[in-house]
Write a structure and sequence with these properties.
The complex is a heterodimer of chains A (183) and B (569). With 183 residues, chain A is an all-alpha fold. Chain A has one domain. Chain A contains seven helices and one strand. In chain A, helix 2 packs across helix 6 and helix 4 crosses helix 6. The longest helix of chain A has 22 residues. Chain B has 569 residues and is of the alpha+beta class. Chain B has a domain of 336 residues: 3-Layer(bba) Sandwich (FAD/NAD(P)-binding domain). Chain B contains 13 helices and 22 strands. In chain B, the strands form five sheets. In chain B, strands 4, 11, 12, 14, 15, 16 and 19 form a seven-stranded antiparallel sheet that branches. In chain B, strand 6 and strand 7 form a beta hairpin. The chains are: A mainly alpha (183), B alpha+beta (569). The interface between A and B is large, with 48 and 45 residues.
Amino acid sequence: MDRRTALKQSALMAGAFALLPSCNFGPDRELVALDNLQIDLDHQDLLAKVIETIIPSTEAEPGAEALNLYRFVLVMVDDCEQKETQQVFVDGLKKFKALLKDKVGQSFPQKEQQANEEILTAATSLEGLSAEEQPVQEFLAIARRYTIQGYMGSKHYLTEKFPYQLVPGPYQDCVNSDGLIVM
Amino acid sequence: MANFNIDSEKNRTYDAIVIGSGMSGGWAAKELTEKGLKTLVLERGRNVEHIKDYPTTTMMPWEFEHNGKVEQKVIDENPIVSKCYAFREDTQHFFTRDDVSPYVQEKPFDWIRAYQVGGKSLLWARQTQRWSDFDFEGPDRDGFATDWPIRYQDIAPWYSHVEKFVGIAGDKDGLDNLPDGEFLPALELNCVEKYFKEKLESQFKGRNVISGRCAHLTQPQEIHLQQGRGQCQNRVLCQRGCPFGGYFSANSSTIPWAAKTGNLSLRPDSVVHSIIYDEDKGRATGVRVIDAKTKETIEFYAPVIFVNAGALNTNQLLLNSKSNRFPEGLGNDNGLLGKYIAFHIYRARISAEYDGFLDKTTVGRRPTSGYIPRFRNVYRQETDFLRGYAAGFSASRRIERSYDGIGEELRQNLLNPEWGVWRVGSHMMGETIPKETNYINLTSDSDEFGIPLLNIKVDYDDNDEKMILDFQEQFTEMYEKAGFTNIRTTDSHQAPGLDIHEMGGVRMGKDPKISLLDEHHRLHACKNVFVTDGACMTSTSTQNPSLTYMAFAARAANFAVEEGKKGNV
């Protein structure tokens, strides 16, 4: 996806969310094909909303939704994690809404990004959770880790922000770092 | 029918057979074909053609589904090979999976294999330091293994021969313990590496930091252009295979070069079962091959046979080449075939920080690092352990980035990293002492080709443990004296094998009673079979061994050609 498409999509998404705050993605939504994780469309949409909260798409900047990061998070957990971690992830995702209602007294998602951020922060900092409830925080930590990895590994990040050079040219062994872009 | 058989046999007869197409086999093939010998190269794995068969070589990071990570399922199914640092999402297709011709670990041993045309020459770390007489004279001086039958002067012209063709970047450093060679311009040390070099060399006599000599074309010469290779672009994606031919591999260099002579027959998917020994003639006459695809057995014949299957595979093949004359394996009159296996110690690392040069950094990537040649026990025995270690040394400017926050705050953190201090690090490359108790042998179980599985029993010893501690102590002191801080040493306790420098088992020596190969790499007891891969090593020293294997292969191949002209083969 190039930057222009990403921006267009993020604009569309922003519009869609304004109309459909219930986190339904419309009739075109599709399950990501997975080998190990058992997740239905509603939970996939919920995950996408959590991830979009972590790195939101704005008019200026593509975020999780525009960069399809929920797909990256799902594929990584499905292919690159051990069984136990996969179970905790799915378990936590499924208990997420109920825990919020119980312990934070809020439903997710809300209309506003800021409200969603506050809910996630509150959920992350809950203390004294039971063994039954703990997977929610582990789920959030895994989702967050892969969201960040997916963002920093995305074409957007590696072309627009910190351009990756497949053929970088000569090695410069000692140059002034002032004002030089930090890779 | 009789005629057909004779024709068929004739069609399967060559001037020379080379078993293996990697680092050393490629060199044997190049030299033999250049000298006019019709040469059959047998490779047990699939064909890998330069550029054409490098499927990931131009892929961008985001084009990999798992951001470079190997899938958990693959790791679970391949606990051995997935330990290798170079086994990644972009390179895994060039490694042999654990379930292919598996082996028995009497002691833990991570055997990293790459069965394909080019073998591990596609995947190597490309470090090419010469041996000196301090290395060749080691066993004799220190009383271990057996004396090498050759010295530096025997191999020096062949180092030059190989270096000119391969293309080696390096400086002429003028060090006794690491002879200079035929170099292209070196890759530069950066400011902190140069600073450490100056600090070290002024405070510790005989300890040096140099730019690691490496097989990269920093300034291609005519001979490299003729190979179709060009300037190294510093991509440092080498293990994907290089579309520029910027680093040396058999695939980019020796194999196509041999093919160009018109004298090469390359047969991939050909697992050599055993070497055929003719009792009447008193020499080897050919090889039994199992076609990996059809499982059909085919014999090929030649008056000269080079075994370059890879150190342990070469042992396995010779052990499995049994005859009335050699019931314990070809050339194995003294029962030492498969014994005195050795390797390099790569367990210990050290890292630290340096807060100088905070206005400086590097740009781009560099396919080598600094190198600290062995300084322990070089001129005389001075520690309570034998031999010593070389080490890498590299420095890079740290990047600090906060991963805190959520939403826009997190994004801004990810988009606004800052320069940190410099990070420095070294890893040891220690010499091990070959011992009879470190061995490989054949088991009674066979693989899918009917070849007995290899049993490996190789372990660390006291000498190794003392050397690891010494590396940690010496480097801590060296780092402290350079003003480095936050010094941390680690010991991975990794099993032998993961160094991918397994050597020996068919060692060279002067005395047939206690060695297998003579000074020309011929089996003492079967003079038309040559071994010039890691199996021939009498001792290991500390240098990455590929350059020495290549020089050995070139030297032995030319000797075989000369002997042929004299009618001695």
